[in-house]
Specification:
Blueprint (H helix, E strand, L loop, with lengths): L2 E4 L3 E6 L2 E6 L10 H19 L8 E6 L3 E3 L4 H4 L7 H9 L3 H7 L4 E6 L2 E3 L1 H8 L2 E5 L3 E3 L15 H6 L2 H10 L2 E3 H6 L5 E3 L4 H13 L3 H17 L3 H18 L1 H12 L12 H5 L4
Parallel strand pairs: 3-4, 4-6, 5-7, 6-8, 7-9, 8-11
Antiparallel strand pairs: 1-2, 2-3, 9-10
Helix pairs in contact: 1-4, 4-5, 10-11
Length: about 290
């Protein structure tokens, strides 16, 4: 049976090794306010990271979505701007604490999937792009509307989307402040897939279950390797050397299971590229 933890602005549901994190301010389109940021950075993400790295099991796949008809409408304009207009000290505090939890998600050690179920703007787009994979409802709306009310996309809302989609597509969204649907998000590769809204939950669940079959430490090393090469702009020679060293470290980290999987492959128990080995496949090789 799934276990749910409820916070003021977030719900976390643990169901086996798949965890769902739901932004839970539906009356505000799940807009990001200071309370949400504090809960995410100080409580939710540290607890999820510890659960993911628990050697006795825990979160292998993290699904991120929003309650109601929205994924995340961006920053709460009232709490971030209107309520701080005459209080520079409070505004500086809010700005300093702004999106620190996005890095917690971006560097999360397990696979993450964004389920874009509805409105996704500004900081919500950064949240979407902070996840490894993304699936959108075809009728979801997204965009970067900041220029239309006098600011630039900030708090990761420029960096992360620009890392995810091409230059022309990003600048169309950023400079014109247009909004688009989920089908367009798939077309420009902002998301992996766009599906009818009534199919979104099932498709996300299927992807999460498939990811959960892959060894979580392997997923962690693959993510870290990709991110390091992207951020350091390595040459091809440096990258291949780095990849080799990471594979050696990975073999040491999961040496016994790796050896058993290779033996199972040699005995035609499973076919890499077509399937992932199961615990049953390698159980007979336990020493």
């Amino acid at each position: 049976m799934a276990e749910t933890e409820v916070f003021d602005t977030v719900r976390v549901e643990f169901d086996g090794n798949i965890t769902t994190l739901t932004l839970d301010r539906p009356e505000k389109k799940n807009a990001i306010n200071p309370t949400l940021i504090r809960e995410m950075h100080d409580e939710v993400m540290p607890a999820l990271r510890a659960d993911a790295l628990d050697p006795d099991g825990g979160t292998d796949v993290l699904v991120v979505t929003g309650a109601g008809d929205s994924f995340c409408a961006g920053m709460d304009l009232k709490e971030y701007f209107l309520d701080t207009t005459d209080d520079p000290e409070r505004f500086n505090d809010v700005r300093r604490d702004n999106m620190s939890w996005f890095e917690d998600l971006y560097t999360f050690p397990r696979a993450t999937i964004a389920a874009m179920n509805g409105w996704c703007f500004g900081g919500g787009l950064a949240l979407l792009c902070g996840c490894d994979l993304a699936i959108a409802a075809e009728n979801a709306r997204w965009g970067l509307s900041e220029v239309r009310w006098g600011i630039v996309p900030a708090g990761g809302a420029t960096y992360l989307p620009a890392q995810t989609i091409g230059r022309r597509d990003f600048l169309e969204a950023c400079l014109m402040g247009r909004d688009f649907d989920g089908k367009h998000a798939e077309f420009i590769r902002l998301v992996n897939r766009a599906v009818p809204s009534e199919q979104l939950d099932d498709v996300v669940a299927n992807w999460a279950e498939e990811l959960a079959q892959i060894h979580p430490t392997v997923v962690q090393y693959a993510k870290e390797t990709y991110r390091h090469e992207l951020e350091t702009n390595m040459t091809f020679e440096s990258a291949t050397t780095y990849e080799g060293s990471r594979n050696r470290q990975l073999r040491e980290a999961i040496d016994q299971e790796n050896r058993k999987a290779l033996r199972a492959f040699d005995d035609d128990k499973f076919k890499p590229g077509l399937e992932t080995y199961s615990e049953e496949d390698i159980a007979e090789y336990d020493e």
